[in-house]
Amino acid sequence: MNNMLIGMSVMIISCSILIGISEARLKIGFYSNTCPDAEFIVRDVIRDATDSDPKVPAQMLRLHFHDCFVQGCDGSILIDNGRISEKKAPRHQGLKGFDVVEEAKARLEFECPGVVSCADIVAIAARDAVSISFGPFYEVETGRRDGFVSNRSLAARMPDISDSVKLLKHKFFEKGLNVKDLVVLNGAHTIGTTACFFLMDRLYNSSPRGGPDPSIDEDLLPELMDACPPNGDIDFRVPMDHNSGETFDTHILENIRNGFAVLQSDAELMDDPVTRHILDSYLGFTNQSFLPSFEADFVESMVKMGRIGVKTGRRGEIRRVCNTFND
Fold first, then answer.
1. What does R_g of the chain's alpha carbons equal in angstroms?
2. Catalytic residues
3. Residue 311, SS3 per DSSP
4. pLDDT tens digits, residue range 212-244?
């Protein structure tokens, strides 16, 4: 029995060492020797793509979020493997920007073949998306490898705009994130648009009585109804941050507090006392002696999210192209 316990202890210690080494490989400047221009190349691609299409920053930010919340930040969202592809899951509907990631990958393969992972490209691109949108620039930990699995069935626990705050909390907790991370990462809706498809129930069939959600401000409601009429184009897009859809700022928090939230999941942050207090703290509506920095907390939450389920070493690969597993 003693020998068995000793053997088990050695195994546990060995596993801990391996896990520690794996995590240690995720660091700032991972490519400083092997591909020193990697982050500059990605940044140039994002900047060029944004010049052609102002929607690109929001697409990159959303892509990173959706990648990390299913199997971790491993580039699985990028794979094209037919109907079972993770990107085909209903809760990934409307994701774009895959071509931008492929362009960055092609340039990196020309410069440093087989070195930079697609998962890292997505993480770097999200940071650059925030910076280009007048948000904070922050250091990105790199060293992720690309995953071996992409299956739509694994996206069942992806947060959804129809989720209650209670359910969203639970889904965030499952990924090692807390309530503040939930509020702050929802603040990413400060840039980008959403399709009318995601607003129809809130505008015309809100539970429990039907009709529009009563929490929508009376000035915003007719504007949203004009943009998304009952028999209109469900693919038409409206800014998620009313009157400030292309600039990274705290305007989204003000909109949520004042009834101008476009998405249901954003509006419900005011229905929960904990999330409401956190949101209010960034706007100076609490009795705190100092005003916390939304930008600093957003960076902290992005870094935390970027560590979810990363693959390093033999647990992943460096794909040659991002939408296909290596042979």
1. 21
2. 66
3. strand
4. 999 999 999 999 999 999 999 999 999 999 999
